[in-house]
Design brief:
Blueprint (H helix, E strand, L loop, with lengths): L1 H7 L28 H4 L24 H6 L17 H16 L9 H15 L20 H8 L16 E4 L22 E6 L7 H11 L10 E6 L5 H20 L18
Antiparallel strand pairs: 1-2, 2-3
Helix pairs in contact: 7-8
Length: 280
């Protein structure tokens, strides 16, 4: 339509002597107004115009050997360790890396949106006095604050992995496991004893101790913890609801016993001579 109108409104037809034709553009006084041809032939903007297709991403299999060698590989996932559990050392390294990202700045900063929102919520709760630490307790030194749990954590020397051994002398570790149909009860066979308790047995002559240290160890244990005929020492722990916690405490007890027995050969501290007051 616009093309036909532009052809009809040529400079020859848009003269003052020519009468306005049908379909021409009239001014306010009935005169024909000349309009630029570029305005008449400009096409309308079509909203339903076809968009350009998005370029396809390259496939991972089409990468060059150099790109594959430079890539870091697949990121580890949590459910990859279902059948092969992580060692305590690997767990501690993961926790330390995450804590470093939360507390440090620079390239190690990995604060996420939920971390910032959690910290904001904690600050609001702290101002309202709904947390265990108050805003007025900033100057309190907590480095000497010791609890029984932290005391056990500081004294324990757990192995770095399941391959490493905590004690290098022969010993036997015993515990019970429930073997039966599924049950909703926490201890379905309670009559058979605890399923989380642990015990350890070791021969006295297998311990790396001297004769005096062995006598000291027997004196500490008492006659109920050692068999006089075979020389086997037995210890048992059933204090925590989890077997791993009882096993860790059992190892700490055995380590403390050995440390106390070795202290028998330590030289006694010298006492200063007593000062006697008075004359002869």
């Amino acid at each position: 339509m616009w093309g036909a109108m532009a052809k009809r409104l040529t400079p020859g037809t848009l003269s003052s002597s020519a009468a306005p034709v049908a379909g021409s553009i009239l001014g306010t006084a009935g005169r024909v107004v000349e309009m630029p041809a570029a305005l008449l032939v400009t096409p309308l903007q079509v909203r339903w115009a076809r968009k350009k297709k998005r370029a396809k991403a390259p496939k991972r299999g089409d990468r060059t050997p150099e790109q594959k060698a430079a890539a870091g590989g697949q990121k580890p996932r949590i459910f990859d360790n279902v059948m092969d559990a992580e060692t305590p050392h690997a767990m501690s390294m993961t926790i330390r890396a995450h804590m470093r990202g939360l507390a440090s700045d620079g390239r190690h900063n990995i604060r996420r949106k939920k971390d910032l929102s959690r910290y904001t919520s904690y600050r609001v709760m702290r101002i309202a006095g709904l947390t265990h630490d108050g805003a007025e307790e900033e100057d309190i030194d907590r480095r000497g604050f010791v609890t029984p749990l932290t005391q056990l954590q500081d004294r324990s020397h757990l192995p770095r992995s399941a391959v490493n051994r905590r004690f290098h002398f022969p010993h036997t570790f015993n515990y019970k496991v429930y073997w039966g149909p599924p049950s909703v009860q926490p201890e379905p066979n309670k009559y058979e004893g605890s399923m989380v308790g642990c015990s350890v047995a070791v021969r006295l002559h297998d311990l790396p101790l001297t004769q005096r240290q062995k006598e000291r160890l027997v004196a500490i244990l008492g006659p109920n913890r050692i068999d006089a005929n075979t020389g086997v020492i037995a210890l048992e722990v059933d204090d925590f609801p989890e077997r791993n916690q009882n096993a860790a405490l059992l190892g700490d007890m055995l380590e403390d016993l050995l440390r106390e027995a070795i202290a028998a050969d330590a030289p006694a501290p010298l006492r200063p001579p007593a000062v006697v007051s008075g004359g002869l």
